[in-house]
Amino acid sequence: xxxxxxxxxxxxxxxxxxxxxxxxxxxxxxxxxxxxxxxxxxxxxxxxxxxxxxxxxxxxxxxxxxxxxxxxxxxxxxxxxxxxxxxxxxxxxxxxxxxxxxxxxxxxxxxxxxxxxxxxxxxxxxxxxxxxxxxxxxxxxxxxxxxxxxxxxxxxxxxxxxxxxxxxxxxxxxxxxxxxxxxxxxxxxxxxxxxxxxxxxxxxxxxxxxxxxxxxxxxxxxxxxxxxxxxxxxxxxxxxxxxxxxxxxxxxxxxxx
Length: 257
Ligand SMILES: Nc1ncnc2c1ncn2[C@@H]1O[C@H](COP(=O)(O)OP(=O)(O)OP(=O)(O)O)[C@@H](O)[C@H]1O
Prior knowledge:
Strand order of the largest sheet: 6-7-8-3-9-10
Largest sheet: 6 strands, mixed
Order of helices and strands: EEEHEEHEHHHEHEHEEHH
CATH architecture of the largest domain: 3-Layer(aba) Sandwich
Number of strands: 10
Bound molecules: adenosine-5'-triphosphate
Shape: globular
């Protein structure tokens, strides 16, 4: 756990009244939140809660039905290219091309992002994620944990102000996951960015996140410090709170549907 981020730190992500509907189904409904510089925010919720839909709207992959998104103060709808140049992401469902080596992949993406001094940037990231020995190995041949580390290196190539991580430790053994959590915490501390992170591992969320948002049925039901929220709501642990929120798809504070 790190020092609490400064409440006055600039917003690296600001989401206002975001909504995404598919026909009569609202995947995301009236969601507002922010991520500050140096902050690690967990986006939690049961399967189908709307986490990936939210992340995909922030990444510009999905167009919101309503609402606005600003990255580092830049409105995504109005100035898309400039806003997206400040983001990056890593997700297990978006692996890097398997027929390219680690180096070829990092060079390819580095050129797309127009990274300055690309070769030295790549070398630093290969060291940081302990993947230098795989530089000439095709990504498709790496273990899932090794691929995750390459995806994280790729996600940091452009030194993003906003880093989105969708279950970054899902395929990792406990020791590798622990190393990775430490690396990600260090990134939040040392860079000028903030991180939005999804995970189903409540132990990890308590250890890593400065703040969490509980999403259920497309709405934010709870928000706060993952170490304080359980006691505030009479739950013994974050996991117990998560299960209650997931099973009670109603206004958690008032009990009103
Ligand atoms: N293209 C689509 N068309 C119709 N419904 C969709 C579409 N994409 C997502 N949904 C629905 O929107 C809801 C939110 O889905 P989403 O993938 O954002 O959930 P999630 O919180 O990421 O879940 P998980 O933890 O299972 O990955 C789900 O009910 C899903 O079925």
